[in-house]
Amino acid sequence: MAPVRRIPRERGGWWHAYVCPAHGLELDHGDPLSGVFPEGGARCARGCRVDTPEVRGAWTVLSHQAWARHARLLALRGDAPATLGILREYAALYRELAGDGHDGAQPWMLRGRLFHQALTDAIWAVNVADAVATLAERDTPGTDELLPLLDELERAALDAREVLVDRGDLASNYLTWLTAAGIGAGRAAALVRGTPWDGAKQWLDGPHGLYAHLRACVGGDGWQWEGSTYYHGFVLRAALLALRGSDPAALPADVASRLTGMIDALAVLATDGGVLPALNDGPYRRVPLALEWLELCALAGGFAVSPRLTAVASAARAEAGVADDGLDRELSGWFAGSPLPERSAPAPVTVFEDAGYAVVRAAGIHAALAFGPHGGSHGHRDKLALSLYGRLACWQPDPGQVPYGNREFRDHYVSTAAHPAFLVDGAEQAECAGRLLARDAVSVTADVSAAYEGVRAVRRIEAGRCHLVDVLTLTVEDGRARRLAGLVRPGVSLDVQVQPAGPVRTTWYGDAEVLHGWHTASAPVRPVTRPGPGPADDPQLTRTWVDFTAHGERLVLVSVYQAASQGPAVTDVALTDEGVVVEFADGTRSAHGTGA
User: Fold this and answer.
1) Are the C-beta atoms of 537 and 284 separated by less than 8 Å?
2) β-bridge partners, 389
3) pLDDT tens digit sequence for 255-284
4) Contact call for residues 167 and 215 (beta carbons, < 8 A)
5) What is the mean pLDDT of residues 458-483?
6) Residue 454 and residue 512: Cα distance in Å, rounded?
7) φ, ψ for residue 16, nearest 5 deg
8) Could you read off the pLDDT of 112-123 as tens digits, one per residue?
9) Is 1 helix (H, G, I), strand (E, B) or coil?
């Protein structure tokens, strides 16, 4: 007999607690639609079984969210009886919880009713409201039974929004989802009642509505203010969900521009194979995240033409694997009217000055330089970190972040040492911002002076004809000798070879994509090589870390990278008084500046 599948009857907790305390891995979800916590404890891929109240509460979050998504998908596919059955159960459960906030929420949390956080309630409510709206659009009998639930969901979203507004937190990513929940529930209720929706002043164009929120949280370069790939997509997805049935061309011009800017930022950040670097906080690789990217790509494609997001969707579908439920394929027609027209294709060098990122493309290499503001609670101490990707290979990725419930591993992935940045005396960088110094058609230069007192760092990245040149200059301004190090943090297997003379050689193995590196410096450096944790999807996978280390008042570290089979092979790299000289197997050479 097949097991009974039902919604959980318990409140959910905080999903970030669903992590192995020993290994830092997100625990296996099992069957979230079973409504029953995994027998014997939640499984860690390293063999642990974990069963604590916090982990049970986190699993219940995942189960409730899975059921809400399932209801939405059933509605879109026309299974009204099954959808109504789920929604009636939730209406009854929510009624039982009336008037009560979750008493298990941590003090810093904006408290929800069904979950620890009002944010989690809102994410769940968006799916529930969308399921009801789909049924109502098809004149499904019985949806009037759900009106008390919809009214309560809108009121809960409004109450939580008022708390944020009173705090002056109009740019919070929570606000996007609370707004999407309020709009979704209000519009669904209007559809059920057969009346026009009258919430535009409250939720869209009022002083605290969606438009004002997007103006507050999205910079002129298209990036959500925290500078996190994940939270950027998180906000964009909620905003596009909130605009169901809207005509993109009818939105206020500045709002449409911000949304298309957000879409363009992802299109530029993505590699040609659709890999999105996990800048700042956010999962490095996660199946539920892949499903979110699929949904976002479908919504974004309906709002504005962006062919590069097709590659992102393809990569996300491959990552999702058997978990792909096809929800994104049901979202055609989400917006009224036609998508906004395509913008220009990414240039070899693109700089996002507000977020403080530069993307440089060079002959099979996709590089991202981080120099901007810290990014609030989701920022990492990684100024002038340089991430390197191929089409699909993550040679030197931003490592991402584990679920927040594992404090020790979370602290590690925030740290300077976890990033391809720089260290002084082995200490952490301060939370700070760098600045853009120069840019042209093939290069970008940035610096930072506040990461370490008395030390200025400059990094210049240049796209060569068949290679990438990276020059990191560290200068101690008070004349004291310090321990200076440029960090190599691969996400793939790495070979390091010291030669009798000339540059240190590195070889990076990214499945079918291989990267070659040449490293030389202005002073004797030791390529201190040791094992370290890999990216945050599995902290137990060790990678070869290299710290190019010197003692002194100044270090210029030059790294030249070339993807395999791209042009004539590099044969030598030298740092001269005039700059960097790269020699090739065909007898030619190229010269490059240092930026300092």
Assistant:
1) yes
2) 366
3) 999 999 999 999 999 999 999 999 998 999
4) no
5) 96
6) 43
7) -65, -15
8) 999 999 999 999
9) coil
Please choose, from the candidates 414, 360, 415, the residue with its C-alpha nearest in 3D space to the C-alpha of residue 388: 360
Which pair of tokens denotes residue 400? 């991402």
What distance in Å separates the CA atoms of residue 306 and residue 304, rounded to the nearest whole number? 6
* Burial of 108 from C-beta contacts in 10 A (0-12 / 13-18 / 19+): exposed
> ∠ at Cα 403 (400, 404), nearest 5°?
105
The average confidence (pLDDT) of the chain is 95
Closest CA to 469 of 458, 480, 477, 461: 461
CA 570 to chain centre: 34
Structure tokens that stand for 437 in this block: 């110094």
Element (H, E) at 67: helix 53-76
Radius of gyration of the chain, Cα coordinates, nearest whole angstrom: 25
Q: How far is CA 281 from CA 18, 298, 352, 411, 441, in A?
A: 17, 24, 18, 11, 30
> What proportions of the chain, in percent to the nearest 5, are helix, strand and coil?
35, 25, 40
pLDDT, tens only, 12-56: 999 999 999 999 999 999 999 998 999 999 999 999 999 999 999
Could you give the CA distance from residue 19 to residue 443 in angstroms, rounded to a whole number?
41
- Residue 500 scores a pLDDT above 70: yes
- Asked if 110 contacts 174 with a C-beta cutoff of 8 angstroms, the reply is yes
Position 4 scores a pLDDT of 55
Q: Are 124 and 64 in contact (CB under 8 A)?
A: yes
The tokens describing 570, both together, are 């590099």
| Residues 271/392, Cβ–Cβ less than 8 Å | yes
Percentage of the chain lying above the pLDDT 70 cut: 99
Angle (CA) 75 80 84, round 5°: 95
The continuous run of DSSP H or E covering 287 comes out as helix 287-303
Measured distance CA(585)–CA(590) in Å, rounded? 12
> In the structure, how many helices (H) and strands (E) does the chain have?
12, 21
The tokens for 77 are 């596919």
Share of the chain above pLDDT 90, in %: 92
- C-alpha closest to that of 97 among 71, 115, 109: 115
The tokens describing 290, both together, are 């892949």
Strand ranges in 454-525 using DSSP code E only, listed in sequence order:
455-463, 468-476, 482-488, 493-497, 504-510, 513-521
Distance CA 362, CA 559 (A): 14
Residue 545 has pLDDT above 70, yes or no: yes
Q: 507 is written with which tokens?
A: 């070889």
pLDDT of residue 124: 98
Structure tokens at 13: 């907790």
